Amino acid sequence: MDLPHIVALARMGAELDPLQATAGRLWLAGPGAALDEAGHLRRAVDAFWSCQPGADPYWDFMATRMDCDGCGEIFKVENMAICPNCFRTWCYRHGRTCRCGHATVG
Ligand SMILES: [Zn+2]
Ligand SMILES: [Zn+2]
């Protein structure tokens, strides 16, 4: 399996959005733990969350709602799986593997 696109974004120094930074953090906590060898993604994710407003911006974002790419139902982000490659969001019924072929995280 190729590395998900979040890794390439971090390497390029791209500006992440909250969904991407969440997918990156979740990926690093799981399958990406041993794959971010140079630490690019860890630094990009940490830098993103440390400059967001609020006491706990990560959990604030987790409490926002998004719709499932499979069924269109709305869920809190904390109850969804996110694709670290194309950043589609999925409910747990629909998304252990994303339509793009990558395993989701969350
Ligand atoms: Zn769904
Ligand atoms: Zn995907």
The distinct bound ligands, ions and cofactors come out as:
zinc ion
- Helix content class: 25-40%
What Rg is obtained from the alpha carbons, in whole angstroms? 13 Å
Main sheet record = 2 strands, antiparallel
Give the overall pLDDT as a whole number: 96
N-to-C span: 18 Å
Question: Which shape, going by the Cα principal axes?
Answer: globular
Number of domains: 1
Strand arrangement in the largest pleated sheet: 1-2
Return the string of H and E elements.
HHHHEEEE
Instruction: Please report the number of helical segments.
Output: 4
Strand content: 5-15%
**Total strand count, please?**
4
Runs with pLDDT <50, length 5+? none
Q: Class by helix and strand content?
A: alpha+beta
Note down, in words, how this protein is organized.
35% of the residues lie in helices and 11% in strands. With 106 residues, the protein is of the alpha+beta class. It has one domain. The protein has a two-stranded antiparallel sheet with strand order 1-2. Strand 3 and strand 4 form a beta hairpin. The radius of gyration is 13 Å and the shape is globular. The site of one zinc ion has 7 residues, from loops.
Give a short synopsis of this structure:
This protein has about 110 residues and is α+β, with helices and mostly antiparallel strands. The protein is built from 4 helices and 4 strands. Bound molecules: zinc ion (2 copies).
Labels describing this entry:
alpha+beta; 106 residues; binds zinc ion; 4 helices; two-stranded antiparallel ribbon; 4 strands
SSE topology sketch:
Elements: H1 5-12, H2 18-29, H3 40-50, H4 57-62, E1 65-67, E2 74-76, E3 80-82, E4 89-91
Antiparallel strand pairs: 1-2, 3-4
Helix pairs in contact: 1-3, 2-3
